[in-house]
Amino acid sequence: MGKEDSLRDEINPSSYGDRITVLCIDGGGIRGIIPGTILSFLESKLQELDGEEVRIADYFDVIAGTSTGGLIATMLTVPDEKKRPLFEAKAIVPFYLKHCPRIFPQSSYGRVKRMSALIGPKYDGKYLRKILRQILGARRLHETVTRIVIPTFDIKLLQPHIFSTFEAEMNASEDALLSDVCIGTSSAPTYLPAHHFKNRDSGGNEREFHLIDGGVAANNPALLAMKPTGTVFPGSPDALASPQSLDYRKYLVLSLGTGTPKTEKKYDAKMASKWGIIGWLYKDGHSPLVDAFTFASGDMVDLHMSLIFRSISCEHNYLRIQDDTLSGHVSSTDKATNKNMKDLVKTGESLLHKPVSRMNLDTGIFEPVGNEDTNEKALIRFAKLLSEERRIRKQRFHQASSN
């Protein structure tokens, strides 16, 4: 690869660019098919503009993902032998279709399966670990094609742990295997086992991690991706220490949800008032407790992001694509039947044709913006902005190199 193609190491926005570009992907288990479908569309538009060889990772300074979103972020940025992304965006959905039935095997003994989930994880996680070890191999966090941010939660310390390329470049104890990071951020309580591993710092000292799903802390990782850390962000080190000094007008943020069943209104206070531990953990194929903390954290971040960009009159710099109208099996995190997975693909495709929506800051409801186009057209606009930013960086980099 030539210098002109290395956006991470040589084309730094604080030196060559006008914007800071951020991609964020929520958690949601098998519903990762929805953002996978959207990312395939976005990459196809970027390829129409800049050639078939370009990839999503060529356009974003930071890609953040939680749980299934962390897996997608890793797929988009893990390097091949030429230090280019190992996967195209269009490979995400086929990956899910192929492997999810073995990650979330559907038992014909439904009642037995539900009872066993009361005393242990619903799934043993062995196939997920096997396939991630196989695909990601010995690649570590510092090697990603562009910088990534992936939240987890350390159950031993009872605090979030955020894995990022920024930290891995500075601290060897943070430079974990990408497979360990993906397994950790995907270890959803009640669904998959917690993940334990050790890592060494530059002095050979061991550090232990005891991880569960990052959705416990940040199911929507958008704010984590905007943390002022590392050389990707403009300004001096002193300026970086103060979030107030950040110019959010420079940010271009694409945030992808995995869908929620909010409009279905499947729970109510009368129902919840009767739940004990079992009721909160399992109700009609869902976990109300898991739904509550993942949807709540996602909405709080979207509210915060919406407030930030509205306050500086830059709403168009922040595009959140989410579907709150899921119902039935497509709202499940683990219904890995062929029919349901195909329905999730259709959900992602139909979401492209829905109008751009934003959170109503007064009501907290995600609703269409009356004077805007569809998500498809918004993504086409986004692709043009990303392409132009990349062109500017390459042009300025060549000018600087020739001087």
UniProtKB/TrEMBL annotation:
Domain comment in the entry: The nitrogen atoms of the two glycine residues in the GGXR motif define the oxyanion hole, and stabilize the oxyanion that forms during the nucleophilic attack by the catalytic serine during substrate cleavage.
Motif (GXGXXG): 27-32
EC numbers: 3.1.1.-
Highest taxon, organism lineage: Eukaryota
GO molecular function: monoacylglycerol lipase activity; phospholipase activity
GO BP annotation list: defense response; lipid catabolic process
Coiled-coil segments on the chain, per record: none
Active-site residue list: S67 (nucleophile), D213 (proton acceptor)
Record function comment: Lipolytic acyl hydrolase (LAH).
One Pfam family hit: Patatin
Keywords: Hydrolase, Lipid degradation, Lipid metabolism, Plant defense
UniProt xrefs under SUPFAM superfamilies: FabD/lysophospholipase-like
Motif (DGA/G): 213-215
Sequence similarity: Belongs to the patatin family.
Motif interval(s): GXSXG: 65-69
Transmembrane segments: none
Protein name, as recorded: Patatin
